[in-house]
Amino acid sequence: MPAPHSQAAEQHRASLSQQRPPALRRELLRNSHLFSHLEDSEADAILAGAAVMHYPEGARIFAKGDPGDSMMAVLKGRVAIHDPSPGGRQVLLTVFREGDVFGEMALIDGKERSANATAAAACDLLVVSRQSFLRLLEHRPNVCMALMIVLCDRLRRTNEQVEDFAFLGLERRIAKLLLRLADETDQRTPSSLSVKIGQRALGELVGGSRERINKVLQDWRRSGIIALEHGSIQICDRQALTDLA
């Protein structure tokens, strides 16, 4: 399992684990499609070897090349997955939010992590060890099927991103990403929907420079499609953005 990066984090980890009653911890585990159909006894068997860990914003959760000995579910906050380029630049691959599960491949092959994971916002993670998960698979083949569904969904999304880079222009890629992020968030105001993402992160996800991203967003702002706030984008005209996508 990844180790906390301070004594305070270790203490917070312990307090979180102790304060959450068994029923609540089962419910958190079942937020994942992978574990949604487990019996109480099976969920408890996994949770007996699991931990709830807290990471402050910006903290490293694991690094590329670290041992792959656990899977994680986001209970609260956001986790950014980066791939370091040969030049040292971090390429943002995806962002996981509350209810998302990541690191599943490590549960299957136990190989090294294929990317870096950092806390994009302060987050609580449910960490499930590979050992306890393998014990479950021996008795519940339906969980194997659920795992394949999760991994296939991840592969489909990756294929879609590759196709977008190959066939869509930058404006369409930005519009499509903002709409997807909007569907994953509930930060609504009476007249708009807020997507919390900076221009640099947006550029990394769609493959555009910050200058090009800024030009597109400013054009949309002047057209009334979006409004820009520090660290977030307000979608004011969803239909217009849908038309652009």
Cα-atom Rg, whole angstroms? 19 Å
The helix/strand class is alpha+beta
Instruction: Order the strands across the largest sheet as they lie in space.
Output: 1-8-3-6
The average pLDDT is 76
Q: How many helices does DSSP assign? A: 10
Residue share in helices?
A: 40-55%
DSSP strand content:
15-25%
Description:
This protein has 245 residues and is an alpha+beta fold. The protein folds into 2 domains: 7-164, Sandwich (Jelly Rolls); 168-244, Orthogonal Bundle (Arc Repressor Mutant, subunit A), CATH 1.10.10. It is built from 10 helices and 11 strands. Strands 1-8-3-6 form a 4-stranded antiparallel β-sheet. Strands 2-7-4-5 form a 4-stranded antiparallel β-sheet. A 3-stranded antiparallel β-sheet has the order 9-11-10. A hairpin with a 5-residue loop joins β4 (79-84) and β5. α7 crosses α10 (238-244). The chain starts with 6 loop residues before the first helix and ends with a helix.
Task: Using brief descriptors, characterize the structure shown.
22% strand; 47% helix; 245 residues; single chain; Arc Repressor Mutant, subunit A; 4-stranded antiparallel β-sheet; alpha+beta; Jelly Rolls
